[in-house]
Amino acid sequence: MRFRKTVLGIYQALLVIVLTILVIIVIFDIFTSRGHARYHWNNIFLVSLFILPTIIFCSCNSVKMLVPKPNLFKRWKSLTQISIVFATLCTVLFGYLLIFETFSGSCQTSVSRTSSLQTGRMAPDFSIRDQLGNAISLSKLRGKIVLLDFWGVWCGPCRQKLPHTQKIYDQFKNKGLTVIGIHSAFQTKGMAAFIAENNYTFPTGIDTGHIAKDYGVTGWPTYYLINRQGRLAWGPRHAPPSEKLIESLLKD
């Protein structure tokens, strides 16, 4: 019995440490400029319903299990059962994210740090046809600021951020900015219907098989900004650029 209590206490203590570090990282990221479009408050609220109670109950129960004297929570008879429920829910949640998101074709969330693309380098040229059949060639867009949005209809974070891309397009399309959506060559079925259903009007084409590779894209969504000279000005990033950044490039 004592052994099981010790194991449970250690596991819950480790879980509290991991969750606390995660909360600190997210809070820090939210209050930095690079994280402004990465999180969605409804998702944060739902996750908090699991994480915050887990931290509270598991931290108290780990003290109860590992520090029997003086036992601060001895009279809290249901503490162990409650903490086990929340610990189990969080474990299942993280297991789901680790296994399902990694192996079921959902989007990755990393951009290659070893990409040969550097700010100031000429952006690799490409040609695609958008959802209306219009031909788009990057080399013919010199003189404009170009935002590239690499996304996929199968990617949850991509779908969540597309409204922001549309907002950028609506705000700056008549001021010298061109937005090009590049759908992943993976699982393209349903792309046209998804675009029409959500009234996304910025040009979007399907990757011809080499564009994402040429840009060193290993995760979706990924964003790049290209200046008027056709050189990479910003990226790769997972969150869309800020309006201030776009305005500064348009002024150059």
Task: Write structural notes for this entry.
- The chain is α/β, with parallel strands linked by helices and 252 residues long.
- The protein has two domains: 2-103; 127-251, 3-Layer(aba) Sandwich (Glutaredoxin).
- The chain has helices spanning 2-30, 41-66, 79-103, 156-172, 191-197, 211-214, 243-251, and strands at 127-129, 135-137, 145-151, 177-183, 204-206, 222-226, 232-237.
- A five-stranded mixed beta sheet has the order 5-4-3-6-7, covered by helices on one side.
- A hairpin with a 5-residue loop joins strand 1 (127-129) and strand 2.
- Helix 1 (2-30) packs antiparallel against helix 2 (41-66) and helix 2 crosses helix 3.
- The longest helix is centred in the N-terminal third of the chain and has 29 residues, at 2-30.
- The radius of gyration is 23 Å and the shape is elongated.
- It starts with a helix and ends with a helix.
